[in-house]
Write a structure and sequence with these properties.
alpha/beta, Rossmann fold, ten-stranded mixed beta sheet, 23% strand
Protein backbone atom coordinates (compact mmCIF):
# COMPACT_ATOMS: atom_id res chain seq x y z
CA UNK A 1 0.00 0.00 0.00
CA UNK A 2 2.86 2.43 0.73
CA UNK A 3 4.37 1.93 -2.71
CA UNK A 4 0.95 2.33 -4.37
CA UNK A 5 0.44 5.55 -2.43
CA UNK A 6 3.81 6.79 -3.62
CA UNK A 7 2.85 6.09 -7.22
CA UNK A 8 -0.46 7.93 -6.82
CA UNK A 9 1.26 10.93 -5.26
CA UNK A 10 3.83 10.99 -8.04
CA UNK A 11 1.03 10.94 -10.57
CA UNK A 12 -0.77 13.83 -8.90
CA UNK A 13 2.37 15.93 -8.58
CA UNK A 14 3.40 15.33 -12.15
CA UNK A 15 -0.03 16.07 -13.56
CA UNK A 16 -0.50 19.26 -11.57
CA UNK A 17 3.02 20.60 -12.05
CA UNK A 18 3.55 19.66 -15.67
CA UNK A 19 0.05 19.11 -17.15
CA UNK A 20 1.49 16.24 -19.16
CA UNK A 21 1.22 12.42 -19.15
CA UNK A 22 2.44 10.74 -15.96
CA UNK A 23 6.09 9.80 -16.16
CA UNK A 24 8.96 8.56 -14.00
CA UNK A 25 7.11 6.26 -11.59
CA UNK A 26 7.35 2.47 -11.70
CA UNK A 27 5.68 1.09 -14.82
CA UNK A 28 5.39 4.52 -16.48
CA UNK A 29 7.59 6.15 -19.12
CA UNK A 30 10.81 7.58 -17.75
CA UNK A 31 11.43 11.24 -17.02
CA UNK A 32 13.74 12.68 -19.64
CA UNK A 33 16.56 15.20 -19.28
CA UNK A 34 18.84 16.17 -22.19
CA UNK A 35 21.41 13.45 -21.50
CA UNK A 36 19.22 10.55 -20.37
CA UNK A 37 16.34 9.23 -18.29
CA UNK A 38 15.34 8.42 -14.72
CA UNK A 39 12.50 7.03 -12.60
CA UNK A 40 11.31 7.99 -9.11
CA UNK A 41 9.32 6.65 -6.17
CA UNK A 42 7.86 9.27 -3.85
CA UNK A 43 6.86 8.90 -0.20
CA UNK A 44 3.13 8.63 0.42
CA UNK A 45 3.34 11.00 3.38
CA UNK A 46 5.64 13.50 4.99
CA UNK A 47 7.09 16.80 3.86
CA UNK A 48 5.96 18.63 0.72
CA UNK A 49 9.68 18.91 -0.04
CA UNK A 50 11.04 15.48 0.88
CA UNK A 51 14.67 14.43 0.97
CA UNK A 52 15.82 11.80 -1.49
CA UNK A 53 18.30 9.05 -2.14
CA UNK A 54 19.40 9.00 -5.76
CA UNK A 55 20.48 5.38 -6.23
CA UNK A 56 22.58 4.15 -9.18
CA UNK A 57 22.08 0.62 -10.46
CA UNK A 58 24.87 -1.89 -10.92
CA UNK A 59 26.39 -3.10 -14.18
CA UNK A 60 23.65 -4.48 -16.44
CA UNK A 61 20.87 -2.97 -14.32
CA UNK A 62 18.45 -0.08 -14.82
CA UNK A 63 16.57 2.61 -12.96
CA UNK A 64 13.39 0.56 -13.11
CA UNK A 65 15.33 -2.34 -11.62
CA UNK A 66 16.31 -0.14 -8.67
CA UNK A 67 12.64 0.67 -7.99
CA UNK A 68 11.82 -3.04 -8.27
CA UNK A 69 14.01 -3.63 -5.19
CA UNK A 70 11.06 -3.14 -2.89
CA UNK A 71 13.00 -4.05 0.25
CA UNK A 72 15.19 -1.01 -0.22
CA UNK A 73 12.69 1.34 -1.88
CA UNK A 74 9.82 0.72 0.54
CA UNK A 75 12.11 1.16 3.53
CA UNK A 76 13.24 4.55 2.27
CA UNK A 77 9.84 5.88 1.17
CA UNK A 78 8.36 4.76 4.50
CA UNK A 79 10.91 7.05 6.17
CA UNK A 80 9.83 9.98 4.00
CA UNK A 81 12.58 9.73 1.37
CA UNK A 82 12.00 9.86 -2.36
CA UNK A 83 14.07 7.36 -4.37
CA UNK A 84 15.46 8.69 -7.65
CA UNK A 85 16.72 5.99 -10.02
CA UNK A 86 18.64 7.25 -13.08
CA UNK A 87 19.54 5.09 -16.08
CA UNK A 88 23.08 4.46 -17.24
CA UNK A 89 23.92 4.01 -20.91
CA UNK A 90 23.92 0.68 -22.81
CA UNK A 91 26.93 -1.47 -22.03
CA UNK A 92 28.99 -2.54 -25.06
CA UNK A 93 29.93 -5.85 -23.42
CA UNK A 94 26.66 -7.15 -21.94
CA UNK A 95 22.94 -6.56 -21.84
CA UNK A 96 21.70 -3.71 -19.70
CA UNK A 97 23.22 -0.40 -18.70
CA UNK A 98 26.41 0.85 -17.10
CA UNK A 99 28.08 3.95 -15.65
CA UNK A 100 31.34 5.64 -16.72
CA UNK A 101 33.21 6.52 -13.55
CA UNK A 102 36.85 7.13 -14.47
CA UNK A 103 36.83 10.89 -14.97
CA UNK A 104 39.29 12.17 -17.53
CA UNK A 105 38.98 9.10 -19.76
CA UNK A 106 36.95 8.79 -22.96
CA UNK A 107 33.28 8.16 -22.18
CA UNK A 108 30.02 8.32 -24.17
CA UNK A 109 28.52 10.71 -21.59
CA UNK A 110 29.62 12.90 -18.72
CA UNK A 111 27.79 10.90 -16.08
CA UNK A 112 28.56 13.34 -13.27
CA UNK A 113 26.93 16.18 -15.26
CA UNK A 114 24.01 13.88 -16.08
CA UNK A 115 23.40 13.15 -12.39
CA UNK A 116 23.40 16.86 -11.59
CA UNK A 117 20.79 17.44 -14.30
CA UNK A 118 18.65 14.63 -12.82
CA UNK A 119 19.05 16.18 -9.37
CA UNK A 120 17.85 19.57 -10.59
CA UNK A 121 15.01 18.18 -12.69
CA UNK A 122 13.67 16.00 -9.87
CA UNK A 123 13.81 18.93 -7.45
CA UNK A 124 11.80 21.10 -9.85
CA UNK A 125 9.39 18.45 -11.06
CA UNK A 126 8.56 16.79 -7.72
CA UNK A 127 9.43 19.41 -5.12
CA UNK A 128 12.30 17.34 -3.69
CA UNK A 129 14.59 19.30 -1.38
CA UNK A 130 17.83 19.72 -3.38
CA UNK A 131 19.81 20.32 -0.17
CA UNK A 132 18.90 16.82 1.09
CA UNK A 133 19.66 14.54 -1.84
CA UNK A 134 22.14 11.76 -1.09
CA UNK A 135 23.84 9.87 -3.92
CA UNK A 136 24.01 6.10 -3.45
CA UNK A 137 24.75 3.21 -5.74
CA UNK A 138 25.61 -0.46 -6.01
CA UNK A 139 28.74 -1.98 -7.58
CA UNK A 140 29.34 -0.17 -10.91
CA UNK A 141 27.03 2.55 -9.57
CA UNK A 142 29.01 2.67 -6.32
CA UNK A 143 32.23 3.27 -8.25
CA UNK A 144 30.69 6.40 -9.79
CA UNK A 145 29.33 7.50 -6.40
CA UNK A 146 32.81 7.25 -4.89
CA UNK A 147 34.48 9.21 -7.67
CA UNK A 148 31.85 11.98 -7.56
CA UNK A 149 32.30 12.19 -3.77
CA UNK A 150 36.04 12.64 -4.30
CA UNK A 151 36.05 15.02 -7.28
CA UNK A 152 33.04 17.18 -6.41
CA UNK A 153 31.87 16.51 -2.83
CA UNK A 154 29.45 19.45 -2.87
CA UNK A 155 27.37 17.93 -5.67
CA UNK A 156 25.19 16.00 -3.21
CA UNK A 157 24.51 16.21 0.51
CA UNK A 158 25.98 12.77 1.23
CA UNK A 159 27.27 9.64 -0.49
CA UNK A 160 26.22 6.02 0.05
CA UNK A 161 28.29 3.55 -2.03
CA UNK A 162 27.52 -0.17 -1.62
CA UNK A 163 30.11 -2.71 -2.86
CA UNK A 164 32.36 -0.26 -4.64
CA UNK A 165 35.20 2.22 -4.12
CA UNK A 166 38.17 3.53 -6.09
CA UNK A 167 40.12 1.66 -8.75
CA UNK A 168 43.89 1.52 -8.98
CA UNK A 169 45.76 3.74 -9.27
CA UNK A 170 43.90 5.33 -6.39
CA UNK A 171 43.43 9.12 -6.56
CA UNK A 172 46.25 10.98 -4.88
CA UNK A 173 43.78 13.26 -3.10
CA UNK A 174 40.13 14.33 -3.05
CA UNK A 175 38.73 17.82 -3.43
CA UNK A 176 37.52 18.34 0.14
CA UNK A 177 35.56 17.12 3.16
CA UNK A 178 32.62 14.83 2.53
CA UNK A 179 29.79 12.94 4.22
CA UNK A 180 30.23 9.35 3.07
CA UNK A 181 28.88 6.01 4.29
CA UNK A 182 30.53 3.04 2.56
CA UNK A 183 29.09 -0.49 2.88
CA UNK A 184 31.07 -3.60 1.91
CA UNK A 185 30.53 -7.35 2.11
CA UNK A 186 33.10 -9.46 3.96
CA UNK A 187 32.46 -12.33 1.52
CA UNK A 188 32.19 -10.21 -1.65
CA UNK A 189 34.23 -11.93 -4.40
CA UNK A 190 33.11 -9.56 -7.18
CA UNK A 191 34.34 -6.40 -5.50
CA UNK A 192 36.58 -7.74 -2.72
CA UNK A 193 37.63 -5.39 0.06
CA UNK A 194 41.25 -5.66 -1.12
CA UNK A 195 40.34 -5.26 -4.82
CA UNK A 196 41.22 -7.61 -7.68
CA UNK A 197 42.58 -7.60 -11.26
CA UNK A 198 40.26 -7.73 -14.28
CA UNK A 199 40.89 -8.62 -17.95
CA UNK A 200 44.17 -10.37 -17.14
CA UNK A 201 45.49 -7.42 -15.19
CA UNK A 202 44.45 -4.66 -17.59
CA UNK A 203 42.44 -3.05 -14.77
CA UNK A 204 42.63 -3.34 -10.98
CA UNK A 205 39.88 -2.61 -8.52
CA UNK A 206 41.03 -0.60 -5.54
CA UNK A 207 41.30 -1.28 -1.84
CA UNK A 208 38.37 -0.18 0.32
CA UNK A 209 40.56 0.59 3.34
CA UNK A 210 42.81 2.72 1.12
CA UNK A 211 39.68 4.43 -0.20
CA UNK A 212 38.65 5.35 3.34
CA UNK A 213 42.18 6.61 4.11
CA UNK A 214 42.01 9.00 1.15
CA UNK A 215 38.65 10.34 2.34
CA UNK A 216 39.96 10.69 5.92
CA UNK A 217 42.79 12.83 4.61
CA UNK A 218 40.43 14.98 2.52
CA UNK A 219 38.08 15.38 5.48
CA UNK A 220 40.80 16.42 7.92
CA UNK A 221 40.23 13.54 10.32
CA UNK A 222 42.52 13.72 13.33
CA UNK A 223 43.42 10.03 13.49
CA UNK A 224 43.56 6.86 11.42
CA UNK A 225 41.53 4.66 13.74
CA UNK A 226 37.77 5.25 14.05
CA UNK A 227 36.36 7.31 16.88
CA UNK A 228 33.39 4.96 17.27
CA UNK A 229 33.09 1.21 16.67
CA UNK A 230 29.58 -0.22 16.86
CA UNK A 231 27.21 -2.83 15.47
CA UNK A 232 23.75 -2.57 13.93
CA UNK A 233 22.27 -6.02 13.39
CA UNK A 234 24.73 -7.86 11.14
CA UNK A 235 26.69 -4.68 10.32
CA UNK A 236 30.08 -3.91 11.89
CA UNK A 237 30.45 -0.15 11.82
CA UNK A 238 33.53 2.10 12.03
CA UNK A 239 32.87 5.86 12.32
CA UNK A 240 35.25 8.82 12.07
CA UNK A 241 33.80 11.89 13.80
CA UNK A 242 36.90 13.97 14.67
CA UNK A 243 37.01 15.46 11.19
CA UNK A 244 36.25 18.76 9.44
CA UNK A 245 32.94 20.45 10.18
CA UNK A 246 30.22 19.07 7.91
CA UNK A 247 32.06 15.85 7.11
CA UNK A 248 31.12 12.39 8.34
CA UNK A 249 32.81 9.14 7.42
CA UNK A 250 31.62 5.61 8.09
CA UNK A 251 32.51 2.13 6.91
CA UNK A 252 29.99 -0.67 7.50
CA UNK A 253 30.98 -4.28 6.89
CA UNK A 254 28.53 -7.16 6.70
CA UNK A 255 29.14 -10.91 6.40
CA UNK A 256 27.43 -11.28 3.01
CA UNK A 257 28.62 -11.10 -0.56
CA UNK A 258 27.99 -8.88 -3.58
CA UNK A 259 24.53 -7.52 -2.80
CA UNK A 260 22.65 -4.70 -1.13
CA UNK A 261 22.28 -6.29 2.31
CA UNK A 262 19.02 -6.47 4.23
CA UNK A 263 18.82 -3.68 6.76
CA UNK A 264 20.97 -1.29 4.73
CA UNK A 265 18.24 1.24 3.93
CA UNK A 266 17.00 1.81 7.53
CA UNK A 267 20.60 2.05 8.74
CA UNK A 268 21.62 4.74 6.25
CA UNK A 269 18.33 6.60 6.74
CA UNK A 270 19.16 6.82 10.46
CA UNK A 271 22.67 8.06 9.58
CA UNK A 272 21.40 10.68 7.14
CA UNK A 273 19.05 12.01 9.82
CA UNK A 274 22.14 12.93 11.91
CA UNK A 275 23.71 15.12 9.20
CA UNK A 276 23.40 18.93 9.24
CA UNK A 277 21.02 19.30 6.24
CA UNK A 278 18.56 16.86 7.81
CA UNK A 279 18.94 18.31 11.31
CA UNK A 280 18.30 21.80 9.94
CA UNK A 281 15.17 20.64 8.14
CA UNK A 282 13.90 18.93 11.29
CA UNK A 283 14.47 22.09 13.33
CA UNK A 284 12.67 24.21 10.72
CA UNK A 285 9.75 21.78 10.69
CA UNK A 286 9.51 21.94 14.49
CA UNK A 287 9.43 25.74 14.40
CA UNK A 288 6.59 25.68 11.86
CA UNK A 289 4.39 23.37 13.95
CA UNK A 290 1.78 25.21 16.05
Amino acid sequence: MRFAGAVVLACLLTASAEAQPVVCVAGAPACTVPAGTYHVALPAHGSAHPPAVMFLHGLGGSGEGVLANRTMTDALTARGFAVIAPDGLPSPRRQGLRWSFRFGTAAPRDDRAFLLSVRDDAATRFGIDPARIALGGFSNGAFLVTYVACAAPGSFAAYLPVAGGFWRPHPEACAGPVALFTTEGWSDATVPIEGRPLRNGEFYQGDIFATMAIFREASGCSQMRPDIVSTTGAFWRRSWTSCAVGSALELALHPGGHAIPDGWAPMVADWLDTLPPWLSASAESARERP
